[in-house]
Structures are given as C-alpha cells and as structure tokens.
Amino acid sequence: MEQKSEVIYGKNPVTELLKSKAGVDTVFISESLNPSVQNYYTALAKECGAVVKRVHPMKLKSLCQSENHQGIAAYASTVEYVTIGQILEAAQRKGEAPFIVICDGIEDPHNLGAIMRSAYLMGAHGIIIPKRGGVSVTGVVHKTSAGASMHLPVCKVSNIAQAVRILKEQNIFVYAADFSPVPLYKQNLTGSIALVVGSEGKGVQPLVKSLCDGIVTIPMCNEHSAVDSYNASVAAGIIMYEISRQRSL
Q1: Where are the beta strands (DSSP E) in the chain?
Q2: Domain termination residue (choose one: 27, 60, 78)
Q3: Is the pTM above the cut of 0.90?
C-alpha cells in the first residue's frame, strides 16, 4: 500500500480522521476557536496520541493554504491506497455485490471530493483513480469529501482501461457515464457494477468507453441550451443514487 502525508483541515474531516486513529501526528487548533471546541479536539487528539498545537489563525491559513480551515487542521499519514482485489474483498466481507466508482481523469479536487462523498453515502465499496492524468487524494479532496475519504477505500492504478478489464474478468458489469438514447432509470443497475465517470471536459476516454458494457445517461430538460451537460460530481451523484436505489429494491 502507498501512504502519503497530507494536511487535513476542516471540522468534519479532522473529526473523522481523529476518530479513525489513522496515524495522526499533530493537530493544529486555532486560538480563536471557542474553548469548548478546543477542548473537544484536544481530547480526541490525546486519544490518538497526537501532539496538539494551538496556533494563530494566520498560521493555519498558511499551513492549509486556504482560509476555509474552520480553525482546525491535522498533519497525518492518511491515504493508504489499496488494490482492486482488496476492494472486492471488502464487498465480499459485507456479503454484497461489488459497487465500484472509477474516476477517469477527474482533475478538480473539489469534484473528486464530492464524488467520494456521494460514493461513500451511496454504499460504494471503493473508488479507482489514475496515477497520472487526474488529481490524487489531497487536503482539498479530504475537505470536500467531509470526511468520507477517511472511510472509502481508494485504489490508484496506472491504466484505467486495464482496471476495467480486470473488473470485467470478475463478472462486474461496467457502465460509462455518457450520452445514450436510453435514460438512466430504464437501465438495470443491480448486481455487481462499476461506474466510470469521465473528466470534466473530455468525458470518458474512447478506449475506456469501448470496453464498458453499457452507457448511462441522465435525461435533461433543456438539452438545446448553452448549458449542455451536468457537472462531473453532480452527474456521478445522480447516477450513484439510482444505482443505490435499484440495489436496495
């Protein structure tokens, strides 16, 4: 497994990190926070054996490279990339058919974080991202995911097309989010399934799309307007909801 050190910031992500006890090293608490809030995070940090440092808000801004730190940050080794096999094993342990999300070139960390948040809440067993051509799990991703990135297994692969081939060999039906005359709700999205979400501008790579078993499309009311598509994370969230809904029937 590959592990990286990240600065995690924001109340929800840091809370989830501390509760998971995932190798937390140092917790930074803004001096401007309410004393009761400071005490809460101090107690959580001590349970993890982490060092607590109270710092000026400007120090936190510099550390996080963002003003949206909410007065709390942590420095920890938090990302352990898993294998595809480990994601499948996680589904097997739960006694569930695998549900995997594949991000094919998502470059905006806010989109990746939002996709991870939806994937976790919709019951996905893991997410696959590329080693190159897409964003990794960064502090911004952690923040946007609201802590979901602490719980959702992430696999980083050299080749998305090969990852699709591996999943198909395991009898997992792979769908690409793209344009199709058949609307989303008319597709059978039950059973073992993987969803490929393409990059913000180009969508799913042609080779990857050609390997998929089907295409899922979200109907649009104003198809001929200047707004011609959904945001990547919004589209992923809508599709994942329909997958989750059908799987629960």
Answers
A1: 2-9, 24-30, 51-55, 72-81, 99-104, 126-130, 154-157, 173-177, 193-198, 214-216
A2: 78
A3: no
